[in-house]
Amino acid sequence: xxxxxxxxxxxxxxxxxxxxxxxxxxxxxxxxxxxxxxxxxxxxxxxxxxxxxxxxxxxxxxxxxxxxxxxxxxxxxxxxxxxxxxxxxxxxxxxxxxxxxxxxxxxxxxxxxxxxxxxxxxxxxxxxxxx
Length: 131
Description:
Belongs to the FAH family. With 131 residues, this protein is of the alpha+beta class. The protein is 12% helix and 22% strand.
């Protein structure tokens, strides 16, 4: 899995820098249990995305607003490493990340996160306290 989180471009430009820790620690990157194949997705360059926390919409976006489209990202990465079927490449998230809000809003134990991507389905996670 490759993680190069260039989330929320306005926040990145204002603060300067990229975040990798948001998706790198154990349990921080839930995925699966299935992966979509190319013929299951109409247009990877136009997938709507959304995320709610406790029923409140925090993020709405689209792959159409990515700095580099998925094809360009895979092409670029393929110049430096071998990508295999099933490899995941994380690219970031739409505007609305809690850390970028004023004041910042962080997830707490008990929060319910629901998210979805057009044509790919939805996920639901409950935030639990660390052991």
